[in-house]
């Protein structure tokens, strides 16, 4: 059983690692957060949050409870458990990029010692823990299951969701050996209300992929249904609301301008890549991916048609994007379809601006950048744009005011229930 005098190390203090570190600190563990981004380390040491949905108070409280942060991996020798929460993106060929995971374990190897537990939380393909982490660890003379206890426990964070938090979201855990599983369950049971043990790390890895593929496929289906309904002059959001009244056999999914976030646009392709090793072609998953990736271009076509109906073109039009985070009420920009739409419109000659209370200044991203800041929404500022695109439906927006003063609105989120002359549903 894990005792509260143990030290917990969280590697990667992002959207997953920081809330987890705060939770361990909350129940009395000493926590060391590791990150190669010195700005995150400095913020934590100052008791400041770099995520708006968490707030400074939470980080300051974590600091008072003994949570610290460092970029020095040598301190990994001091901890009793290392939980790895680093990115697992795709490369330009849509293949898994495990450079962050492998680079992290390589950096930790000199400081590992007997008795430690290592948990990988980064979403990845089945086999990663056994095939990538285990051999590296055992190359240092540490036997997994005897000297080191290695598990995979997929993150299930949902930033901005007021109904669930780190403590209340059930935690799946799979171990390389029975002893590893026992250690992983004991560790997470100290901070999570319900821990769900599974038979292997591969099972745990596949569980996370199934969860996100389930969402990706169903969103792909409803996005395709949106296109069909649009051609038929039917409001797909009205259809979904009506279908959702069925008390069994139907789960509502909602269309949008495309998929965003670090999970759903990326994770399915970890499985499609690994499945090819076994001679399996995952046509269903890849088709859903094609539909979802085509949504930004479809939205731009709707914008073009809406402007053409008013004898205007995209070129030279002033277009305001409402919401550039990937989902409502968070500041998370990862894989945001709004950014892709902005780039498509910019390429076609539109004059782009945006408003997002969660993203006051457009951040420097790996592949995208606009030298823009969020504008304040007023009747005067709204009325000067030729078209307003609702890309992310933040609660903070005054949709009634927007409707009253906008020349033309393209609504990709089903914000407006009733038809109106200046509202185009997309």
Architecture blueprint of SSEs:
Elements: E1 7-11, H1 17-26, E2 30-34, H2 38-45, H3 56-64, E3 68-70, E4 81-84, H4 99-108, E5 117-120, H5 128-138, E6 149-152, E7 171-175, H6 178-189, E8 195-198, H7 201-231, H8 236-243, H9 267-277, H10 283-293, H11 295-308, E9 318-322, H12 337-347, E10 351-355, H13 379-383, E11 387-390, H14 399-405, E12 409-411, E13 423-425
Parallel strand pairs: 1-2, 1-4, 2-3, 4-5, 5-6, 7-8, 9-10, 9-11, 11-12, 12-13
Antiparallel strand pairs: 6-7
Helix pairs in contact: 1-3, 7-9, 7-10, 11-12
Give a summary of the structure in a few sentences.
By secondary structure, the chain is of the alpha/beta class. The chain folds into 2 domains: 7-199, Rossmann fold, CATH 3.40.50.720; 217-425, Rossmann fold.
Shape: globular
Class of secondary structure makeup: alpha/beta
- Average of per-residue pLDDT values: 94
State the CATH architecture of the largest domain. 3-Layer(aba) Sandwich
β-sheet strand percentage: 5-15%
Level-1 CATH class name of the largest domain: Alpha Beta
Q: Assign the CATH topology of the largest domain.
A: Rossmann fold
Spans where pLDDT lies below 50 across 5 or more residues: none
Radius of gyration: 23 Å
Strand order of the largest sheet: 3-2-1-4-5-6-7-8
Major sheet details: 8 strands, mixed
Helical fraction equals 25-40%
């Amino acid at each position: 059983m894990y005792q509260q005098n143990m030290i917990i190390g969280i590697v990667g203090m992002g959207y997953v690692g920081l809330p987890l570190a705060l939770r361990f600190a909350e129940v009395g563990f000493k926590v060391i957060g590791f990150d190669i981004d010195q700005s995150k380390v400095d913020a934590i040491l100052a008791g400041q949050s770099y995520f708006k949905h968490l707030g400074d108070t939470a980080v300051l409280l974590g600091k008072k409870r003994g949570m610290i942060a460092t970029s020095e991996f040598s301190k990994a020798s001091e901890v009793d458990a290392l939980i790895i929460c680093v990115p697992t993106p795709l490369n330009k060929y849509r293949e898994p990029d495990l450079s962050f995971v492998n680079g992290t374990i390589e950096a930790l190897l000199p400081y590992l010692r007997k008795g430690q537990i290592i948990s990988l939380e980064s979403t990845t393909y089945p086999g990663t823990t056994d095939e990538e982490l285990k051999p590296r660890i055992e190359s240092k003379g540490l036997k997994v299951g005897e000297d080191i206890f290695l598990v995979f426990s997929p993150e299930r964070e949902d930033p901005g969701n007021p109904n669930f938090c780190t403590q209340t979201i059930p935690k799946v855990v799979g171990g390389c050996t029975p002893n590893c599983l026992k250690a992983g369950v004991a560790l997470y049971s100290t901070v999570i209300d319900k821990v769900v043990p599974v038979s292997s790390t591969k099972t745990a890895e596949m569980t996370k992929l199934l969860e996100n593929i389930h969402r990706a496929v169903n969103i792909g289906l409803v996005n395709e249904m949106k296109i069909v309904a649009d051609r038929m002059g039917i409001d797909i959001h009205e259809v979904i609301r009506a279908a959702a009244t069925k008390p069994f056999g139907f789960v509502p999914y909602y269309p949008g301008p495309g998929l965003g976030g670090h999970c759903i646009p990326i994770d399915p392709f970890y499985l499609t890549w690994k499945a090819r090793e076994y001679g399996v072609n995952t046509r269903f998953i890849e088709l859903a991916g094609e539909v979802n990736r085509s949504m930004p271009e479809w939205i731009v076509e709707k914008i073009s048609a809406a402007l053409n109906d008013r004898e205007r073109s995209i070129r030279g039009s002033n277009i305001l994007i409402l919401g550039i985070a990937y989902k409502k009420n968070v500041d998370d920009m990862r894989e945001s379809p709004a950014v892709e739409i902005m780039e498509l419109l910019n390429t076609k000659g539109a004059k782009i601006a945006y408003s997002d209370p969660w993203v006051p200044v457009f951040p420097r991203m790996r592949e995208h950048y606009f030298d823009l800041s969020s504008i304040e929404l007023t009747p005067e500022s709204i009325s000067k744009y030729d078209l307003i695109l609702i890309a992310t439906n933040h609660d903070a927006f005054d949709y009634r005011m927007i409707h009253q003063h906008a020349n033309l609105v393209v609504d990709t989120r089903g914000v407006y229930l009733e038809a109106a002359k200046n509202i185009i549903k997309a």
